[in-house]
Amino acid sequence: xxxxxxxxxxxxxxxxxxxxxxxxxxxxxxxxxxxxxxxxxxxxxxxxxxxxxxxxxxxxxxxxxxxxxxxxxxxxxxxxxxxxxxxxxxxxxxxxxxxxxxxxxxxxxxxxxxxxxxxxxxxxxxxxxxxxxxxxxxxxxxxxxxxxxxxxxxxxxxxxxxxxxxxxxxxxxxxxxxxxxxxxxxxxxxxxxxxx
Length: 196
What we know:
Helices cover 51% and strands 10% of the residues. The chain is mainly α and 196 residues long. Strand 1 and strand 2 form a beta hairpin. Helix 1 packs antiparallel against helix 5.
């Protein structure tokens, strides 16, 4: 099964909200399934955004099943909410990157190689842009909107007090932030996975 097929299968099985079919249609017509996740960090290759979204979904589902999280703290999120925030948290990156060519010297010979640049035609931030795009198709719960908005945690440009308060008030935001970091740093090779 390809990553695209896996995404569509999870999306259709878990997300039943009004407008979700129109959002999926938008994604199918966009570059979501082929876009990179970044220009030079995690997922900086064709299909990186799709792979990252699936990795975050896997990490978030595992995190949400932790006994301490559910039994001690009493947090329990629906499968639909988990799928929405994980699969769609980075929609801000749809139609955001473009491929260009540059010359690089390899073994003393100049070669023309592709690389990604940013072409932001909707400069609306990061998490808030994802919330904006999704909200144009289907309604988000408050927990989902805050989770997507603050999924970058303290690594974004936001005021630290505001981020901390959001993560404290909305456990789904904290959970998505942890899942996003796990996927970015450990699953997607930013940190050497062979280290012991």
